[in-house]
Specification:
11 helices; Rossmann fold; alpha/beta; 6-stranded parallel beta sheet; elongated; about 325 residues; 7-stranded parallel beta sheet; 2 domains; single chain; about 20% strand
């Protein structure tokens, strides 16, 4: 018996890794995802098979998954498959379900008010068991079994010390949607001797991780991506974290005990495909796990306020129980 854990790298993989700790084990475990700094770091001590990415609405990419799904099913004797999406789930779960594998699709925590396109398509296949991470739209077809954010709770944070105030600004890993608006707004606030530095009487040092956003003409040194281990260390040491409101980036900050400022992207500005980040921001605000602000409305007071709270892991989050 083997359980296949299947997800696109990024927020989908982070969620699956989090939820896998709350799912009852069954046989061996095989992870399938795309290879990058994040996935190779998360799966460094797990058995993993790396495959090509499946882009949004990539029908050919979905079909290319089927031969690999068949080969892995035969070689590993897969009896259970669990996925948090996205498009890669369409290439594996329907085929495996047809082969008698117990298939489970957990919709991303990003989807606060309803399923994604992937979820809607998989919902047409009765053999696949479906899960929402929110009670608000769970029902007969979509079961509620828990939420990744059940593992975290806010707490007070003691003031940090030192000559420097460390800030991390992260735009996630998406390369197709620039988010220059956030960067341009933050630059004057985060200069080494700027308004934030004067307010706290400490020099500001900022790590800029900008993915596919073009910033070469701006007065900052930025990195498109950062190895996962190095990024985790930077988040853990940061006094302030400012991020786009993506699930993966939010979970990354929470894992390191940081109470992030989240800036939702706007679809009307071409920063994202839809406005699900606003919905996620509202949910994390409700749980007290993040401070949410519009990208061009973040103030020095917001930056300082974020340092007064921290995030801790619940010692025993509830199990995520799959349907039999």
């Amino acid at each position: 018996m083997t359980t296949l854990f299947l997800a696109t790298t990024g927020g989908h993989l982070r969620q699956l890794a989090e939820l896998s700790e709350r799912i009852a084990p069954e046989g061996d475990a095989l992870w399938v995802t795309n290879a990058d700094h994040l996935s190779t770091s998360i799966l460094c001590d797990r058995t993993a098979h790396f495959v090509a990415d499946v882009h949004p609405r990539d029908v050919r990419g979905v079909l290319r998954c089927v031969p690999t799904a068949h080969r892995l099913w035969r070689e590993w004797k897969i009896t259970r498959a669990i996925s948090t999406g996205s498009g890669i789930a369409l290439g594996y779960l329907p085929y495996l379900a047809a082969r008698g594998v117990s298939c489970h699709y957990v919709e991303s925590a990003t989807r606060v008010v309803g399923p994604s396109l992937t979820g809607r398509l998989l919902g047409r296949i009765p053999l696949i068991r479906l899960y929402s991470q929110y009670t608000g739209w769970a029902g007969r077809r979509w079961m509620y079994a828990g939420n990744i954010f059940d593992s975290y709770q806010p707490t007070k944070r003691f003031a940090s010390s030192g000559d420097e105030l460390r800030v991390v600004v992260t735009l996630g890993i998406a390369t197709g949607f620039p988010f220059r608006r956030l960067v341009e707004h933050l630059i004057p606030l985060l200069t080494p001797d700027g308004p934030l530095a004067r307010a706290v009487d400490r020099r500001v040092r900022t790590l800029w991780q900008t993915a596919g956003t073009e910033v070469d003409d701006l007065p900052i040194r930025a990195l498109p991506s950062i190895p996962s281990g190095d990024f985790a260390t930077a988040l853990r040491r940061a006094d302030i974290v400012v991020s786009h409101a993506g699930t993966g980036s939010a979970v990354a900050a929470l894992e390191q005990g940081r109470y992030p400022i989240l800036a939702p992207r706007a679809s009307a500005r071409g920063e994202i495909g839809d406005d699900h980040q606003k919905q996620l921001g509202a949910e994390l605000t409700r749980r007290g796990l993040a401070l949410v602000r519009e990208p061009d409305a973040i103030t020095v007071d917001d930056l300082i306020a974020s340092m007064s709270r921290a995030i801790m892991r619940n010692s025993s989050p509830p199990p995520f129980r799959l349907r039999p």
